[in-house]
Design brief:
Layout: H1 2-8, H2 15-27, H3 29-34, H4 36-62
């Protein structure tokens, strides 16, 4: 569900980057499943970082 919100919010542009990030997260499935609380914290921090990255990218592209 978190990943769906992430991708549907379009924080990252470009299919190549989206695919690479998704592939990494899927490969780490066993680790995510072994400690759900830690995984949710880590993923929420990841989403915050990507949101900040998207804001900076948007500002750079609009010249703000």
């Amino acid at each position: 569900m978190i990943l769906e919100m992430f991708w549907s919010s379009q924080f990252i542009s470009g299919l190549s980057i989206s695919y690479d990030v998704t592939e990494c997260l899927v490969k780490l499935h066993d680790y995510w499943a072994s400690d759900i609380a830690f995984s949710l914290t880590l993923l929420s921090q990841f989403l915050e970082d990507m949101e900040a990255y998207a804001e900076v990218s948007k500002e750079k592209s609009t010249g703000v």
